[in-house]
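Progress narrative, work stream C.
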Amino acid sequence: MTHIYSTAAQMSAALAAKEVSSVDLTKEHLARIAQVDTDVHAFLYVDKEGALAQAEAADKLRAAGGAISPLAGVPLALKDVLAQKGIPTTCGSKMLENWRPPYDSTVVTKLKAAGVVILGKTNMDEFAMGSSTENSAYGPTHNPWDLDRIPGGSGGGSAAALAAFEAPLAIGTDTGGSIRQPAAVTGTVGVKPTYGGVSRYGLVAFSSSLDQAGPCARTVLDTALLHEVIAGYDERDSTSINQAVPDVVAAAKRQEVKGMKIGVVKELGGDGFQAGVSQRFQEALEILVANGAEIVEVSCPNFEYALAAYYLIAPSEASSNLARFDSMRYGIRVGDDGTVGAEEVMRATRHLGFGPEVKRRIILGTYALSSGYYDAYYGSAQKVRTLIKRDYEKAFESVDVLVSPTCPTTAFKIGEKSDDPLAMYLNDIATIPVNMAGIGGMSLPCGLAPEDNLPVGFQIMSPVMQDDRMYRVGGTLEAALVSKWGQPLLSAETKLAVK
């Protein structure tokens, strides 16, 4: 596949100049998917006919001279947790196998209104529960940097599609790091917007107080362009924030941090972090200093309890949310031979429909919410959440943004942590606090770890509804790294083995 236009911004400019058509771009990406996705398995469903029809419509609108979005005609991969009318939406689970929603999620509605071409639905950990995309009922996704390694999770399919050049843009969702952690290990960019900054209507819920859809791409500017499309108030989402969206595109283009104070979170580093990850992180800090930023160390003492609190809050909410999958209204139905009652059918359906990790979290959450244990577990976890939020509020009184490595390590091998849930959960130790506080978080690549030559992620955290700050810092760091490397940001294109 020849990438004349490697970024969405370049594609947008080429479309505007009529150097290329959306149909041609879409065909090129569909061909790339056909070429490599047998190895990568980023997609669960490719909507070839629908994508070409959307591309043709974008080309016709542009030819007619009508008002058009900057991303009109640019292809995109959609995480399979967002409803798209008439398109299979499985959440990576057998429970929803072949379910075709009768409506669009708000994110999809906004994408369609902007003329973005949706190529298909990407693989994910079942119901977004996982850090490796190994929990998908339809098989794991492989990291294009090394097909024996994980692409992160739960949104590994979206991140892998970007890294493999199967799409220039993608949508992910982030409950405890499911956008940022895959971005880190695939050398791509991923943003979790402020909670409530992007509508959750039509996003199949895992943990309602933590889930947040967000943009993914290969550059900070592309991510900002997509953020601008999907963000904004939605009256159909009771948690949606009714205020103006920050100008993230202008912030990404600004590429200037002179006078900014950047706080390094003491608790998100050190022991347990791979040496190469820490090395690249420190080098990135030096680049920001060279560009005029002031670096200070910040302590957020309650972050050490974030992982434990998260794994009480998220499973508790999952226990409630996943109760709707009862075999009666939608999804699969098992064991209904006319001789057994509804409870037996529900039991058989849930036994076969849910995978081991989903069952583990439902059981954990149900126990935490049970009579006599609610205050000791769920109630206490919510108190910890408040303390984490206060840590952030105090920190942002003295700094503009906070930073840390996105993940403790680079991508690990498929199967390496499958039998050790705690080891798997620890992958999200640096990302979970962001979700607990509802603030914005970004991961962008800051180089390759010397031990294994795999991507390292740099995390930027910004206050509520000030997402533009992380785009400003991210855009500056990205530009400096591109200048240093003498080439665009990390590309796994030449590393992808095509059988």
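Work stream C, second folded protein:
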Amino acid sequence: MDRSNAGLAADGRPTSLLPKRELFRLSLYWLGLSSIFAGLTFILGSRLEFDGLVANKDEAGRTLFLLTIGGAIIAMIVQPTIGTISDYTISRWGRRKPYILIGSVLDVVFLAGVALSQDLVAIAAFVALLQFSSNFAQGPFQGYVPDLVPARQVGLASALVGMMQILGNVAGFVIAGIAVALDQFALGLIALGILELLTMLSVVIRVREGAAPKSREGRSWTAIASEAWGTDILRERSFLWLVASRLAVLMAGGVLLNLAIFYPTRSLGMTQEEAGLAIIPMTGLVAIGTVIAVVPAARASDRVGRKKVIYVSCAVGAAGLAMVAVAPSFPLALAGTVIFGLSTGIFLAVDWALMTDIIPKASSGRYMGLSNVATASSGVLAVAIGGTLMDVVGGPTGPRAALWMAVVLFGVGAFLLRAVDERRREDLPAAVGAVLASA
């Protein structure tokens, strides 16, 4: 049921506090969304390594990139476009839910297609379709936090979103790890789809709608869709710098996550079964580190500022991945993943809060969708650059070289963050606010 714009601040942010149970339901769908591509990438990498999809295993990193690049491009186009359209959508279910339901159902169909495909071209096609359907749902869904969460709860909401994202990664890796260990790749992919469907219901059935849709003012849907890519975005300098910083940080983590199967097999000499089982404690320790860090980080950012906390995240993440890169044994690598997990929890708890603080609230679907340029491209760029470096260096040292590249990326992310003005949009000087409001 739609609500009117009553109870909104001048900048469009809601003012009424949400019950904690609704904050939890709102963020739960992130668990399902995150699990899909974490598990999918691990299973695809495992099939390249163990299932004979490539004749030369030294080309596995570059092949994984080719399997995912088309889908990443689709994601970067679809999510901002559909997010913008949802800002204007009028339906009996509200402006976000129809897209979430349709996209989630199609995700299951396309995951089944990946599961049943036996050649690289078919797999790449279904991965591209999966990116379309997933981002068809995710673009509108990302608008919910700015739609519903008042300023006083942004830190808590961001912490819950971050926690669900990492728990989704953990769930995806655990499902994929079991599938790899049992040599049941197809069942693992189907299980990922079921998990997403279940978490989708928490939003579609139980989460209320936010503010009323924006008026189209007689414009066509084609004109609305093209609005996502309007040049007015260039006036949002802090937003652009934050997206660039976010890309570098997410790429750093993506090197470890997307190349996870190659590190234990090549650098530590594990078998397929050992590597599949090894990913479970690794992701479990990442989750523990994240859960420990996420709520304290969100609270700290409310007191000392978002950027300072993200700087800490980058330093901690670089230290954790450096430890994994040099680890001579699996136990030491596990210690590094705990530190990396702390970094991930800190970053995810604050990243969404900072993004929500600085974007125009009335166009939250558009701006949160545009922020997905970093999310959608980070994994494939991590595979493209890190995977290629891994293949070029080759042997046991290849995955370690990719991890050292990730350490550098954390530094790049911290450097780019310096240009971001972290003040909330409503706290900007009137003259600046007027310029941005006209954008």
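The CA atoms of residues 105 and 381 lie 28 Å apart. No further action is required on this item.
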